[in-house]
Amino acid sequence: MRLSKIVIVFTLTLVAAAGLWAAEDTDKPNIVIFATGGTIAGSAESQTQAGYDSGQVGVEVLINAVPQLEEIADVTGEQIANVGSQNMNDEVWLKLAKRINELAKSPDVDGMVITHGTDTMEETAYFLNLVVKTDKPVVLTGSMRPSTALSADGPLNIFNAVAVAADPDARGRGVLVVANDSIHGGRAIIKSNTTHVETFLSPKRGLIGLVQYGKTLYFREPYAVHTTQSVFSVEGVDTLPRVDIIYIYEDVPGDLIEAAVKAGAKGIVTAGVGNGNMTDSALQALALAATKGVVCVRSSRVPTGFVGRNVEVDDDEIGLVASYEHNPQKARVLLRLALSKTTDPVKIQEYFAQY
């Protein structure tokens, strides 16, 4: 009789343990997808049509198009905006950043994904990399083909982005961008081709890692200050200062820089030739702008390389900032946030070295 009781108790224990193991096996991470529009939410009349309308499909449609997400995460969606990313703006940036920071505090959220158009994704990714206050994974993704296209790249990009956001090893790596099986850092990524699926590159620092059908492989830790260590914040911020980019070319006049100052720019970034260089007339206009309190950053239109300080231009004498690794669009993002802290070009130069 005693032996029978022992067998029964042992059997019940195994059943309970099996139930516990089953519960653990089905305990999936909770991922929130924020949709902002873009090609990934685009629609065309034909599967083989080059032209399409961005931002036509809602977040629930995007999620439902990838039923395999159920295998890796419990996914919910929020529609932040629905625009082509050529129309991305400060209002959406601030709304998105604040909502990420709000939900990141919840123990019921393990990671977040943002669907976004590819045109300005590198700028949004870097902005969020500087103002998001969490170590939880924040991952942007998009597509080069609309949702209605033959061989649309959006569904797999979403699946892989959710997989990275659900991966504990992605924590603390800053804001990431997942596309075409690659994991990029928000600071390093650039769009390199107008139409190709493999448009995104990280030419200066390389990839963070790879993700193939949800399986991740990381090459390195992040570099430069980001997210929780950043001094920049969107808390209580409703507007960002105007910063203009002036493209430099053969025989460029200085009046374009003068016009930006008159229009109210608080900062100017030049997309210079070579090592951030420009014509004498443009440099004179930039120097004059600096004397008026406009913070001026020399960047380069060349896609790779480092814009050095005091190389061919005496930045110390004129009071300019060298962009270092930052291309013009990334330099603009950083300068706008730096101006919320100071207008001192010396301190802002330190930010360009740190971030």
Question: Care to describe what's here?
Answer:
With 355 residues, this protein is an alpha/beta fold. It has 2 domains: 29-229, L-asparaginase, N-terminal domain (Rossmann fold, 3-Layer(aba) Sandwich); 243-354, Rossmann fold (3-Layer(aba) Sandwich), CATH 3.40.50.40. The protein contains 10 helices and 14 strands. The chain has helices spanning 2-25, 59-64, 90-104, 121-131, 154-165, 255-262, 280-291, 315-318, 328-338, 345-354; strands at residues 30-37, 74-83, 111-115, 138-141, 176-179, 182-185, 190-191, 200-201, 209-212, 215-218, 243-247, 267-272, 295-300, 321-322. The strands form 3 sheets. Strands 2-1-3-4-5-6-9-10 form an 8-stranded mixed beta sheet. Strands 11-12-13-14 form a 4-stranded parallel beta sheet, sandwiched between helices. A two-stranded antiparallel ribbon has the order 7-8. Helix 6 (255-262) links the parallel strand 11 (243-247) and strand 12 (267-272). Helix 4 runs parallel beside helix 9. Mean pLDDT is 91; it is low at 1-25.
Helix count, DSSP H or I runs of 4 or more residues: 10
Structure summary, number of beta strands: 14
- The CATH superfamily of the largest domain turns out to be L-asparaginase, N-terminal domain
How far apart, in Å, are the first and last alpha carbons? 73 Å
**Gyration radius, in Å:** 24 Å
Q: Can you tell me the CATH topology of the largest domain?
A: Rossmann fold
Mean pLDDT: 91
Inertia-based shape: elongated
**Total domain modules:** 2
Percent strand equals: 15-25%
Sequence stretches where pLDDT stays below 50 over 5 or more residues:
1-25
The CATH class of the largest domain: Alpha Beta
Q: What is the second-level CATH architecture of the largest domain?
A: 3-Layer(aba) Sandwich
Q: Give me the secondary-structure category.
A: alpha/beta
